[in-house]
């Protein structure tokens, strides 16, 4: 999220509220709550940890507001009512976000230091080209990105045009990134890199890729 450092925290707060209102949660993980609607039996309330922000009565009130009178709810972490509502709604999106504050050349050093110490925040000046290298490093780290390079049979890897993917992707995700029909025609893949025990290693669709891996896909 690109922000104007001269506007302090006002701009960020407004944008976060707009995203919250449409169900987008930034730098948050999905609440660890098991929730299942049932046909009968009333409300079954349980927790595996002490709850300091919510209790059984409040849970029942919230569920009744949603016309839910039979359900099983199991709390595996201490959460607030808003997070339970997110789970009930089942339409929230949880996204990582890096806050990039531009125009730091127009504010005081004290303010730059304050902003830079905030979580998931990077300060830059595009006009003066300040801190842009650190921004690039932070993008890779905070957004959990990796590079995967492709290789055609009998040719060297294409290191000039790598695929930018999220950490934890499988060979199947790589296939979809190249072409939507490739996974259906997939036979096996050869992978070189840190995700393999030896190079090249023959792998299937569920093999998890690592940063800077090279992949050659063999079709049926």
From TrEMBL:
TGS domain mapped to chain residues: 144-219
GO function term, MF aspect, one: GTP binding
InterPro entries: Beta-grasp_dom_sf, DRG, G_OBG, GTP-binding_2, P-loop_NTPase, TGS, TGS-like
Pfam family for this entry, one: MMR_HSR1_Xtn
Keyword list, A-Z: GTP-binding, Nucleotide-binding
Top-rank taxon, per record: Eukaryota
PROSITE patterns noted in UniProt: G_OBG, TGS
Domain OBG-type G as annotated: residue spans: 1-144
Leader peptide range in chain numbering: none
The protein, known as: TGS domain-containing protein
Lineage summary: Eukaryota, Metazoa, Ecdysozoa, Arthropoda, Hexapoda
């Amino acid at each position: 999220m690109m922000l104007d450092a001269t506007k302090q925290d006002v701009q960020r707060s407004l944008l976060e509220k707009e995203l919250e209102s449409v169900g987008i949660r930034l730098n948050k993980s999905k609440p660890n709550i098991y929730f299942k609607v049932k046909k009968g039996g009333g409300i079954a309330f349980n927790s595996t940890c002490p709850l300091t922000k919510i209790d059984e009565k409040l849970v029942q009130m919230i569920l009744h507001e949603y016309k839910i009178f039979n359900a099983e709810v199991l709390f595996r972490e201490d959460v607030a009512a808003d997070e339970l509502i997110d789970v009930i709604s089942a339409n929230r999106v949880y996204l990582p976000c890096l806050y990039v504050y531009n125009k730091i050349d127009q504010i005081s050093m004290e303010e730059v230091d304050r902003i830079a110490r905030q979580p998931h925040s990077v300060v830059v000046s595009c006009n003066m080209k300040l801190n842009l290298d650190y921004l690039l490093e932070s993008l890779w780290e905070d957004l959990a990105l990796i590079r995967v390079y492709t290789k055609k049979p009998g040719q060297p890897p294409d290191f000039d045009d790598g695929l930018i993917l999220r950490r934890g992707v499988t060979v199947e995700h790589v296939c979809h990134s190249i072409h939507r029909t490739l996974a259906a025609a997939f036979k096996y893949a050869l992978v070189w890199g840190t995700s393999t025990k030896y190079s090249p290693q023959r792998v299937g669709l569920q093999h998890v890729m690592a940063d800077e891996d090279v992949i050659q896909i063999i079709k049926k």
